[in-house]
Task: inverse folding
C-alpha cells in the first residue's frame, strides 16, 4: 500500500493517479477530506483498487500521534511513504518576513514530515523493507532571493533524507528525494495567500513541469529493484536553468 500526504491536489494527487494506474492500493491523506473522497471514488471506480482516505493535518503533532495509534493494523500494510505535503507563505526578505508565515512553513515542511515518517519507520525497519520518498525542491540546493525560510526547510529535508539513509543502513529500507524545479500547482496560490493574479504570473509564458512529470518520476523511483536505491533526482523544466533563470516566450 502507498501512503501519500498532501494528496488532495498537485503532485500528491498526480502521484495517487500514477500509482493507481499500476493497480497499487492507496492511502491518501490531506486536510481537504472532501476532495480526497472524490479522488478516491474516481480511482476506485476506474481502476478497481482499494483507496483509503484520512483527514490529516501533518503539522498537528497530537493529531498525527492519534492517527497512528488508531490505525496500527492498516499502517503495517504500507510499504511506500510519499512525503509530499509542503507549502510556504510570503516572499519577503528576512528583515521583514512574517513570523507566522515562517512557523507555518517550518511546521509543514519539516516537522510534519518528521511526525509522519516517525510513525511508519519502525514498521518498515522491523519488516526489513519499505521506501520513503520525500518531495524536496531545487530550492534545497540553490537558494533564491526572498526564499530564505522555504529554502531552509527544503535544505533540511535533504539533510533528513540523508540522515534517514544512514540511520536505516542495513535494514533494507530505502530513502529517496525527488527535487523538482518549477511545477504548476497550487503552491504559488498558497504562497501569495489566494492572490490568483500574482500566482498566475509565476508561470506566465513559461513551459513549466507538470505534476504528472513528477509523479512518473516518483513511481519509477519506487519501482526500482529492491537492491537499487535512487538517492536523489533533481528535475528542472528545459526552460529553467536555475532557481532564478527562466526562458519566457511571449505567446503569438
Result:
Amino acid at each position: 500500500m502507498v501512503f501519500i500526504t498532501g494528496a488532495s491536489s498537485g503532485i500528491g494527487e498526480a502521484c495517487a493517479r500514477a500509482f493507481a494506474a499500476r493497480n497499487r492500493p492507496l492511502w491518501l491523506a490531506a486536510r481537504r477530506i472532501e476532495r480526497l473522497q472524490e479522488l478516491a471514488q474516481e480511482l476506485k471506480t476506474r481502476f478497481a483498487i482499494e483507496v483509503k482516505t484520512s483527514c490529516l493535518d501533518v503539522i498537528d503533532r497530537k493529531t498525527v500521534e492519534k492517527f497512528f495509534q488508531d490505525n496500527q493494523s492498516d499502517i503495517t500494510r504500507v510499504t511506500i511513504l510519499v512525503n509530499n505535503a509542503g507549502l510556504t507563505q510570503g516572499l519577503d526578505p528576512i528583515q521583514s518576513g512574517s513570523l507566522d508565515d515562517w512557523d507555518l512553513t517550518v511546521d509543514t515542511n519539516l516537522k510534519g514530515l518528521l511526525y509522519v515518517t516517525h510513525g511508519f519507520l519502525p514498521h518498515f525497519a522491523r519488516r526489513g523493507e519499505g521506501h520513503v520518498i520525500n518531495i524536496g525542491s531545487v530550492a534545497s540546493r540553490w537558494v533564491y532571493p526572498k526564499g530564505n525560510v522555504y529554502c531552509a526547510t527544503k535544505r533540511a529535508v535533504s539533510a533528513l533524507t540523508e540522515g534517514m539513509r544512514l540511520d536505516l543502513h542495513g535494514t533494507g529500507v530505502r530513502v529517496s528525494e525527488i527535487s523538482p524545479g518549477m511545477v504548476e500547482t497550487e503552491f504559488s496560490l498558497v504562497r501569495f495567500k489566494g492572490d490568483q493574479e500574482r500566482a498566475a504570473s509565476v508561470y506566465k509564458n513559461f513551459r513549466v513541469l507538470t505534476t504528472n512529470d513528477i509523479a512518473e518520476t516518483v513511481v519509477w523511483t519506487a519501482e526500482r529493484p529492491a537492491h537499487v536505491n535512487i538517492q536523489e533526482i533533481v528535475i528542472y523544466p528545459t526552460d529553467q536553468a536555475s532557481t532564478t533563470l527562466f526562458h519566457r516566450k511571449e505567446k503569438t
User: Anything to note?
Assistant: Residues 2-235 form a domain with the Rossmann fold fold (CATH 3.40.50.720). The chain has nine helices and seven strands. The two ends are 46 Å apart (CA to CA).
